[in-house]
Amino acid sequence: MPRTLNTSDMVTPGSLGPPPTKPTDGEPVGQSLLDGAPLSASLDTLIQHLVPTTDYYPEKAYIFTFLLSSRLFIEPQELLARVCHLCIEQQQLDQPVLDKARVQKFGPKLLQLLAEWTETFPRDFQEESTIGHLKDVMGRIAPCDEAYRKRMHQLLQALHQKLAAQGQGPEGVLGADKPISYRTKPPASIHRELLGICSDPYTLAQQLTHVELERLRHIGPEEFVQAFVNKDPLASTKPCFSEKTTNLEAYVKWFNRLCYLVATEICMPAKKKQRAQVVEFFIDVARECFNIGNFNSLMAIISGMNMSPVSRLKKTWAKVKTAKFFILEHQMDPTGNFCNYRTALRGAAHRSLTAHSSREKIVIPFFSLLIKDIYFLNEGCANRLPNGHVNFEKFLELAKQVGEFITWKQVECPFEQDPSITHYLHTAPIFSEDGLYLASYESESPENQTEKERWKSLSWRLPLWTVKMSVQALELPVCIFTPECETAPPVCAACKHS
Q1: What residues are paired with 465 via a beta bridge?
Q2: CB 67 within 8 Å of CB 60
Q3: Which of 89, 143, 183, 402 has the greatest CB tally within 10 Å of its CB?
Q4: Which residue numbers delimit the Ras-GEF domain (predicted)?
C-alpha cells in the first residue's frame, strides 16, 4: 500500500542504490535520479529505475509515483512490456543456461514489483497481452525455483479476484434513468419520507458513511490521472489512455444525488412544521457526519439545504433553530479556498494516523474539492520540461495527494449496515430542479415578481410533477465550484463543461 509521500521517500538507502545507466535523451552525465527528490528525468531513465536487479529494488514511493504518472506518457501495457524486456536483457534470461544463483537473487525482487503493481493498479492488467508478458518473464525464471511458479499462480489469482470485484462497481446502484410523472406529489406507496425509514440522525450519518466508503473503494488511483489525461506532445496524436473514469464519475453523481435527495425530502411535506422538522433532522445528520469525518456527505447535505427551492422557504426556516446550521456552514465556507474545511480535514487526518479504533480512522474528504485540487495541480505544471524530460517533481506532489486518498478509502467501515436505509438512499425518487421549484412554490407561494413568473412558466411547461430516479437524468446538478466556475474542471456539470 503506498504511503503519504515525502521527498526523502525517493532515496534508496544503503547499498541498494539506483543501477548505473547511460545518459539518454540528452541527459547530462552524472545526474542522479534518486539523489534526493528528482526534479526531472527522461522517460527511459525513469523506466530503468523501475526495473529491479540482483542488488537493487526501487522504493515503494517511487514505484507508486511512477506507475501513477507514467500513463500520461506510455500505455501500461507497453510499459510492462518494456520492463519485462529490460529484465530479460539485463539478467540474461534468454540464455539456454541460466545463472541459477543470479536468478535466485533477482527472482524475489521481480515478484515483489509485480505484486505491488497488480495490487495497486489491477486495471493495468485487464488486457490479455499484459498477462502474457507476466507469464513469459516468470516462465523464464521458474525452472530455477518452483516456488516462483507457485507464487506467480497466487499473484494471478489475487489479480483475477480484484478485477472481478472492481467489475461490480457502483454505477448500477442508482435507480433507473427514466423520469416518472405525477399529476400530484408522489403517492406514499412510491415516495416514503426518509424520517419514516430512519429518525435517528446518528444512524443515518453512519449509513451515509457506509455508502461513501463503499463507493470510494471502487475508485482506482489511476482514475485521478485519467480524468485529466492529455496528449503527450512527444507521442502520437492519440491520448495515451482512453478508458472512462466510471467509478470516479459515479461518485460525483452520488454527491449530486444526495444534494437533491435532501432538497426533495425538505420540499415534500405539505405542512411547514413537518418541513422544519426535516430541516432540523438534516442539520443533526450533517453535524454527526462532521464528527465522524464524513465531509463529503456533510457538504452534500449543506448544498442541498442551500438550494434555492429550499432556502426560499422563509416560513419553514423561521421555525428552525439555525445556530447549528450556521456553524456547519462556517466549517464548509468556500472563503479562502475552503480554509476552514482544510483545517478540519487536517485534524481528521491526524486523528486517523493516531487512531486506536477503526471509528477514529475514518476520513472521507469533500471529493469534488479533492478533484479540483488535482485538476489545478495538473493544469498549473507542465508534464514535460522544455528539454523533453518528465517533470517528476510535479508527479511527486500528485502522488502525495492520491496516496493519501488511497489510505483513507481502505478504512473498513465500523458501523453495521442497515440495508433498508442504504436502499432508500440509493433508490428514493428525487425531484428535478424544476420539480423542486414546483414543490417549493406549492408549499410556500411565490413572493416576488420573479418567483411568480417562474411559477407561471413552470406551471405551463410542466403540468406534471417530474421525479428523477437518478442524478444522471438531472439537468442542473449543484455547482460545487462556485464562484470559480469558469476555471472548474469538467466534473462541474452545472456549468455545462464538456
Answers
A1: 182
A2: no
A3: 402
A4: 196-447
Question: Which amino acid does the sequence have at 462?
Answer: L
What topology does CATH give the domain 194-230+243-434?
Son of Sevenless (SoS) protein; Chain S, domain 2 (1.10.840)
- Model pLDDT for residues 238-262, shown as the tens digit of each residue: 444 445 578 888 898 999 999 999 9
Is the alpha carbon torsion for 445, 448, 449, 453 positive or negative? negative
Task: Find where cell 493519501 sits.
Answer: 404
283 Cβ contact list (under 8 Å, min separation 6): 305, 320, 324, 325, 328
| Whole-number pLDDT of residue 416 | 93
pLDDT, tens digit (0-9, with 9 covering 90-100), for 92-140: 999 999 899 999 999 999 999 999 999 999 999 988 889 999 999 999 9
Whether the CB-CB separation of 49 and 62 falls below 8 Å is answered with yes
**Burial (0-12, 13-18, 19+ Cβ within 10 Å), 484:** middle
